[in-house]
Amino acid sequence: MAPGLSVREMRDDEKSLVLEMLKAGVKDTENRVALHALTRPPALLLLAAASSGLRFLLASFALALLLPVFLAVAAVKLGLRARWGSLPPPGGLGGPWVAVRGSGDVCGVLALAPGTNAGDGARVTRLSVSRWHRRRGVGRRLLAFAEARARAWAGGMGEPRARLVVPVAVAAWGVAGMLEGCGYQADGGWGCMGYLLVREFSKDL
């Protein structure tokens, strides 16, 4: 674990800083996710069909070609920002929490929520590390804290098992590698037109 690093609940005066950290984290992956989504064969066919249709309405061939791509990229980015770029309300597991260096610098944020059904365990709804503090053990420290909270919550609620689920964008290979190294396994996800955009990693605790 990273030395001199603690995890505590976020204070009100840290909310704006944490929001900026979340938004920066989304920006780091949204272009790669958009590229992944829009280079799948069904998406390419839809973009080609849209461009062909627009050529009858627009005088500019270049505009007809680029407009569908621009709108599709904007839709993917707005969807990711709405889902991960904001702070969720406090849930049954408390939080949000922040990782703090000994100097007082907030370097990461974590939020958890109960699963939808009994036995689903807990879910990570936000997990982001400041770009200035990455690859220094902050993500692993937050993950260990999340696992401890999930165990305590499952025991207190009489859940049949303690389990933690972490959603990861397909382009976030570093996060996926960290989870696999901590014993998590890919277990489904969600996406569009049959292609995954977000994978879900889970672990029984």
From TrEMBL:
One MF term in the entry's GO annotations: N-acetyltransferase activity
Asked if Disulfide bond is a keyword of the record, the answer is no
* Domain N-acetyltransferase residue range list: 54-205
Q: Which protein family is named in the record?
A: Belongs to the camello family.
Protein name per the record: Probable N-acetyltransferase 14
Residues spanning the membrane? 54-76
Location relative to the cell:
Membrane
Role summary = Probable acetyltransferase.
**CC terms in the record's Gene Ontology section:** membrane
Query: Is Nucleotidyltransferase tagged as a keyword?
Result: no
Organism of derivation: Chrysochloris asiatica (Cape golden mole)
Q: Which Pfam families match?
A: Acetyltransf_1
Enumerate the InterPro entries for this protein. Answer: Acyl_CoA_acyltransferase, GNAT_dom, NAT_camello-type
Query: Which gene produces this protein?
Result: NAT14
Sorted alphabetically, the keyword list is: Acyltransferase, Membrane, Transferase, Transmembrane, Transmembrane helix
